[in-house]
Design brief:
The chain has 315 residues and is mainly alpha-helical. Helices cover 71% and strands 5% of the residues. The chain contains 12 helices and 4 strands, in the order ααβαβββααααααααα. A 4-stranded mixed beta sheet has the order 1-2-4-3, covered by helices on one side. This is Peptidase M48 domain-containing protein. Belongs to the peptidase M48 family.
């Protein structure tokens, strides 16, 4: 019986190897035919770019309402917050952008974020910010979010993520025949050895997966690095518009302190500085620069303002 079982597993293993080999070959020939029939490089690039743009646009058009619904955001009317909208109008006039609609939500932590661009933007704020921040601090935080709208930061991030997914998908499809073949080798080997339940990944399969993962991680790091630079740029623009760097610094500090309150810790709500954010990898994968770095930059700007004011001769 044992000999019959071993013979059976060998036959199954060889059959699996043949099946996967033929499947991989057919996939390779199909991809080769598609590649052979490809248009000239300019058209190919245009097609890929078109897919990226269409995907990003759909993500933005569909994703924004879903995100607002997920946080139960409700629009804040001008009747209820005439003073806020009056100041927003002034800031937007300075920045030459359309006044965004302000939505109020109950977020997991005190925060604010912007969606869209300079012509049709949305700013979502947590309800607690109205009691947590002073008028100057709230204005500085709004100026920071308006800077994101002015710079199309949300849209650029959406396009970048869509491009990343497209590139990774194309690479994964291109390597599919190789992955199929070595998947067959791994499964066939397990059956031939008499251990069909064990299908360890071969070194080649790890290599294929590693290539895709490496490209995905590399592109992700680039997108995250760009996001961190845009946070600094938004801070700088907010200071330029309001002229009060310390107001933004105090706002950021208050958000941190409120998020790290004992109540938030008790309920396990996220904090700006989780332990993994303190590691080198955590900092590389973060969409925001370290909070202390941002505050230090803002304090330095305030000190430069004071030094410049003292250097003005009084006659």
């Amino acid at each position: 019986m044992r000999l019959l079982f071993r013979l059976f597993t060998v036959v199954v293993g060889l059959s699996l190897l043949a099946f996967y080999a033929v499947f991989a070959l057919l996939t390779y020939r199909f991809l080769l035919a598609v590649w052979s029939a490809r248009p000239d490089p300019a058209v190919s690039v245009a097609l890929v770019a078109g897919v990226v743009v269409l995907t990003a646009w759909l993500n933005y058009r569909i994703g924004t309402p879903r995100l607002l619904a997920s946080v139960e955001a409700t629009p804040l009317s001008t009747d209820r917050a005439s003073g806020l909208y009056r100041r927003l109008d002034e800031l937007c006039e300075q920045m030459e952008i359309a006044t965004p609609t302000v939505y109020v939500a109950r977020l997991a932590a005190p925060n604010a974020f912007a969606l869209g661009g300079p012509k049709s933007g949305v700013v979502v704020v947590d309800r607690s910010l109205f009691g947590l921040l002073s008028a100057d601090e709230f204005e500085a935080l709004m100026a920071h979010e308006l800077a994101h709208l002015e710079g199309y930061d949300g849209l650029v991030q959406t396009f970048a993520v869509s491009a990343l997914r497209t590139v990774v998908s194309i690479l994964a499809v291109a390597l599919l025949p190789v992955a199929l073949f070595f998947e067959g080798v791994a499964r066939a080997t397990a059956w031939i050895r008499g251990t069909p339940s064990a299908t360890p990944l071969s070194g080649s399969e790890h290599g294929v997966g590693g290539i895709v993962t490496l490209v995905a991680v590399g592109l992700t790091l680039l997108v995250r690095a760009y996001s961190r630079r845009r946070e600094f740029a938004a801070d700088d623009r907010a200071v330029e518009i309001t002229g009060r760097p310390l107001s933004l610094a105090r706002a950021l500090r208050r958000l941190e302190q409120a998020t790290e309150s004992p109540l938030n810790r008790f309920f396990g709500l996220p904090t700006p500085r989780m332990p993994e954010d303190e590691t080198a990898l955590g900092r590389l994968l973060s969409t925001h620069p370290p909070l202390e770095t941002r505050i230090e930059r803002l304090v330095e700007k305030a000190e430069k303002q004071d030094a410049a004011a003292r250097s003005i001769p009084i006659r």
